[in-house]
Amino acid sequence: MDLNNKLVLLTGASGGIGACLAQSLAKRGAHLLLVGRNAAKLEKLQQQLQNSEQHALLSADLTCDAGREALNHWLESYRQQGQRISVLINNAGTNQFQFLSQRGKESLQNELNLNLTTPILLSQAALHWLERPGIILNVGSAFGSIGYPGYASYCAAKAGLHRFSEALDRELDGSGIRVLYLAPRATKTELNSPAVNELNQKLGNRSDEPQVVANHVIEMLEEEITARWIGWPEKLFAKINQWFPSLVSQSIRKQQIAIHHSLGKNLSHRRTNDHDVEVPTSSKPL
């Protein structure tokens, strides 16, 4: 897809990856509808974008009915003006590095809601307002392919998002709408907890700059690539885990002491990507 003059809806716009992605899209000539919870961050981001007057902002919580209704009303105003959205990027996400036994019910529900339920509902709504040809791109995680201690519910949500994207893309075959899935690995953002950064350093895990993820998103949109995993050896581990999960379990078992030590330092930490929602991939050890 040629992104020039296309109307692109981006959730989680003011987070680390979201902001880089917004800047990259603006440079491609896209007109952006930026959505997040933090109005001040959205306004600051808009001022930094190329052709800032071409972009619009909506401060809303898309995990609740009121927020999604506000979004639908907003998009309806564009439709009445003869403008249609060409791309929906479900970038908003959250995760918490903690053992399941230490998690509260509300935090689990919020994590599953934002990472899985919300993009499903937005994708469903998009079928009514996306122009054709159009694209839905869901930002997942390498942890959608590899279950990792301390991220049980996050892994579940991202695995669900992967299969949802795959199923919907097949369901819409021939309709003019594509559904794409991107799985970043650990990504450097200011929201990473010290415990997670320390664990990544101990294990020698590589982390990408947010711009790396943004570049992959742009390439996927322009070339309409169905699915992509970022990073090596993460790509390999995802494949091995599919066919020989016991080998990955053996590898992770060697990391258990470091994982438990880091989790002991992380008990009071809470992280929500810029939904203020940023990306689902902020610092994940692998």
From TrEMBL:
Annotated stretches, region: Disordered: 264-286
| InterPro entries registered for this protein in UniProt | KR_dom, NAD(P)-bd_dom_sf, SDR_fam
List the GO molecular function terms. Answer: oxidoreductase activity
Show the coiled coil region(s). none
Any keyword Coiled coil? no
In Swiss-Prot or TrEMBL terms, this protein is called Short-chain dehydrogenase
Example GO CC term: the record gives:
membrane
Q: Which residues form the Ketoreductase domain?
A: 6-187
Keyword vocabulary terms for this entry: Oxidoreductase
The cross-references to Pfam families, in alphabetical order and at most eight, read: adh_short
Keyword Oxidoreductase included in the entry's annotation: yes
Q: Give the organism, scientific name.
A: Vibrio xiamenensis
Q: Which domain of life is it from?
A: Bacteria
Q: What family name appears in the similarity comment?
A: Belongs to the short-chain dehydrogenases/reductases (SDR) family.
